[in-house]
Design a protein that fits this description.
Layout (H helix, E strand, L loop, with lengths): L1 H12 L22 H11 L5 E4 L9 H13 L3 E4 L9 H34 L12 E7 L4 E7 L1 H17 L3 H11 L12 H9 L8 H10 L2 E2 L14 E4 L2 E6 L2 E6 L6 E4 L8 H13 L17 E3 L6 E6 L5 E6 L1 H6 L9 E2 H17 L19 H24 L6 H51 L6 H11 L2 E4 L4 E4 L1
Parallel strand pairs: 1-2, 5-9, 10-14
Antiparallel strand pairs: 3-4, 6-9, 7-8, 11-12, 12-13, 14-15
Helix pairs in contact: 6-7, 11-13, 12-13, 13-14
């Protein structure tokens, strides 16, 4: 219907249209502008394939004000017409633009209200013990049940999946593995994920083994969730937790924008809503507590027992992974520190053949480069990121050519005014149009050179600032802690890569 309405508008409003290309994103929500067809539209606009964008309503672009402003500015910069069929907004006038932005704001309010209604409905379903959507926890499958007027979804045990999960639990507890050790063991033994068949990651293992949906609703479980600070549903008071049903935990994840894209991340524990489910439990609380206690014992202590290194957090292996630190005790009781690739450790030499390297060797290489930069300012240019070289050209020559073309156009225009009825007028007009095209191209080249000049100036200022930081580090090296040295190095170094033989540094 929307496509037909847009086509009808185009047929009524335009003549000699070469092509009409529809861009549709079925199944995507309008609050997210990162959609396949929308991305293709932006690419086609950037490639100069489109003169006009026609949409059914303003909220078909998106309902996020910031994203919409970015998209609309993108069209305006390329002089692309923007038309909404149903809103009747003329974006070529200031009032029309203001109305357009208001329409986007009200669309965002509508989305927020819809979200609240959906959330309230999901909370109601969770409180009643039903499954609220998404992938079921491993060991269960989804089944619809009728409650009279409506049918809802619940969880029912999936015996093969449950046996697979119990196998993982048995391996974990018998061997006292950490999640990392568990991942390595599963890879070595060829144990793959139940549904997708890929190797299990530590994140997947933790998600499978720590899911509380399968645990019986005993008083001990109620006290456990209450002690965590979760929201305990009023319809599931403590006296109803009798161990006959499973548990519904709603709101364990939330949507968050990460690097411009929406991702599901773990929500704070105090946002979890806990209620009694209508499904059958498959795990006793004692076993669940045993698993959680095991994770607590194997929890990584983030407080460093040893000093850090200069390149920690910036050095990458040739395979692209951020290199980790390993400590090896010496015979004299001291400790040596090594950079190593975590991919090689997890997946073996077949995935990455980069060997571990002593941290002090690479750190000294970096300091040697820093000392060279301190003594010779030009050395830093060798380690700055090499930008794509633009064709050389003289700004003065371009300006002179633009001025000469302008003067030619003025003279031809004056001649045309005097000989407008002459048969030579058409040749004068053709010459003016040719010069005008040249003038546009010359102005474009001049603008590009101006931008490139500003970029070079910015890179030079950045290089000078980095050299000052390097001098500051070297002059006060003995006074800084190792953490402070690492912080300065990370602010100066853009990238560092070890390829098993050489260190590649970019400042």
């Amino acid at each position: 219907m929307q496509v037909d309405a847009c086509r009808d508008y185009i047929d009524r409003s335009f003549d000699d249209v070469a092509t009409i290309t529809p861009y549709e994103d079925d199944g995507y929500i309008r609050s997210d502008i990162d959609r396949p067809a929308m991305n293709q539209l932006r690419q086609d606009v950037a490639d100069g394939l489109i003169d006009c964008v026609v949409i059914y309503r303003i909220d078909r672009v998106c309902s996020n004000m910031m994203d919409f402003c970015t998209f609309y500015t993108f069209l305006k910069e390329r002089e692309i017409k923007f038309i909404t069929v149903k809103d009747g907004i003329d974006t070529t006038t200031p009032i029309g633009e203001a109305m357009m932005y208001l329409a986007v704001i009200f669309s965002g309010i509508e989305i927020s209200n819809d979200t609240l209604r959906i959330t309230d409905n999901m909370n109601h379903l969770a409180a009643a013990g039903f499954w609220c959507g998404g992938q079921p926890p491993l060991g269960y499958k989804i089944q619809e049940i009728s409650t009279g007027k409506k049918s809802h979804k619940t969880l029912v045990p999936d015996q093969p999946a449950l046996e697979y999960k119990n196998m993982l639990i048995e391996i974990l507890l018998e061997n006292r593995f950490s999640l990392q050790q568990m991942e390595t063991y599963c890879r070595q033994q060829g144990i793959r994920s139940y549904n997708k068949g890929g190797f299990l990651s530590t994140t997947q293992l933790h998600q499978i083994l720590s899911s509380p949906m399968c645990v019986a609703d005993t008083v001990a479980m109620y006290d456990y969730f209450e002690s965590l600070g979760c929201m305990m549903d009023e319809g599931s008071p403590r006296e109803k937790w009798d161990g006959k049903n499973g548990i519904i935990v709603y709101g364990r994840t939330t949507e968050k924008r990460v690097n411009g894209k929406k991702r599901h991340v773990k929500a704070p524990v105090d946002k979890w809503r806990i209620s009694i489910g209508v499904h059958e439990p498959t795990m006793e609380p004692d076993l669940y507590f045993q698993i959680m206690n095991h994770f607590g014992q194997k929890k990584f202590d983030k407080k460093m027992r040893h000093e850090t290194t200069l390149l920690k957090g910036v050095l990458r292996c040739k395979c692209g992974r951020l290199m980790s630190l390993a400590r090896k005790p010496k015979a004299d009781g001291s400790v040596s520190t090594w950079y190593h690739c975590p991919r090689r450790e997890r997946e073996g030499v077949a995935s990455c053949d980069c060997r571990a390297i002593k941290a002090e060797l690479l750190d000294e290489k970096v300091l040697e480069i820093f000392r060279q930069i301190e003594h010779d300012p030009d050395v830093i240019r060798q380690y700055m990121k090499q930008e794509e070289k633009k064709p050389a050209g003289s700004t003065d020559a371009l300006r002179k050519q633009i001025l000469e073309n302008g003067q030619k156009i003025d003279r031809l225009t004056a001649t045309l005014a005097e000989n407008g009825s002459s048969s030579a007028a058409k040749y004068i007009i053709a010459q003016i149009e040719k010069l005008d095209v040249e003038q546009i191209e010359l102005n474009r080249k001049l603008a590009e050179q101006s931008v490139e000049t500003r970029r070079q100036q910015a890179r030079l200022r950045g290089a000078q600032a980095k050299r000052v930081e390097i001098q500051h580090l070297l002059e006060n090296f003995d006074e800084f802690t190792m953490e402070e040295k690492n912080e300065i190095a990370r602010s100066v170094i853009q990238s560092a890569m070890w390829d098993n033989e050489a260190l590649f540094l970019t400042l």
